[in-house]
């Protein structure tokens, strides 16, 4: 997917996910759902495991925001030489 086409699909989507045995809902834009799934797959982890890690490290931050920041950090790090 190109960056331009991902910008046109910015609607927030609420999805259910199981984190450490508890079901919760997370609202993210499609592009962030796709990115966090890719990150989990590349790390050979389940999406639930990765989100549980993010959840455990987020402190008082909103989970959706914490996921977006993890995606941003991942791709920023990947773009550095």
List strands and helices in order, with pairings:
Layout: H1 3-8, E1 12-19, E2 22-29, H2 30-42, H3 47-57, H4 63-79
Low-confidence stretches: none
What oligomerization state is this entry in? single chain
CATH topology: Ribbon-helix-helix fold
Q: Total helix count?
A: 4
Query: In total, how many domains does the architecture comprise?
Result: 1
Helix content: 55-70%
Q: What is the CA–CA distance across the termini? A: 23 Å
Structural class: alpha+beta
What is the succession of H and E elements? Answer: HEEHHH
Name of the level-1 CATH class: Mainly Alpha
Q: Give the neighbour order of strands across the main sheet.
A: 1-2
Radius of gyration: 13 Å
Q: What's the main sheet like?
A: 2 strands, antiparallel
Overview of this protein structure:
The protein has 81 residues and is of the alpha+beta class. It has one domain (11-79): Ribbon-helix-helix fold (Orthogonal Bundle), CATH 1.10.3990.20. It is built from 4 helices and 2 strands. The protein has helices at residues 3-8, 30-42, 47-57, 63-79; strands at residues 12-19, 22-29. It has a two-stranded antiparallel sheet with strand order 1-2. A hairpin with a 2-residue loop joins strand 1 (12-19) and strand 2. Helix 2 (30-42) packs across helix 4. The longest helix is centred in the C-terminal third of the chain and has 17 residues, at 63-79. It is globular, with a radius of gyration of 13 Å. The mean pLDDT is 89.
């Amino acid at each position: 997917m190109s960056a331009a086409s991902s910008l046109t699909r910015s609607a927030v989507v609420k999805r259910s996910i199981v984190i450490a045995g508890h079901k919760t809902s997370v609202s993210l834009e499609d592009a962030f759902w796709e990115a966090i799934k890719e990150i989990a797959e590349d790390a050979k982890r389940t999406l639930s495991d990765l989100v549980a890690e993010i959840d455990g490290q987020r402190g008082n931050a909103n989970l959706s925001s914490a996921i977006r920041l993890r995606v941003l950090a991942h791709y920023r790090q990947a773009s550095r030489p």
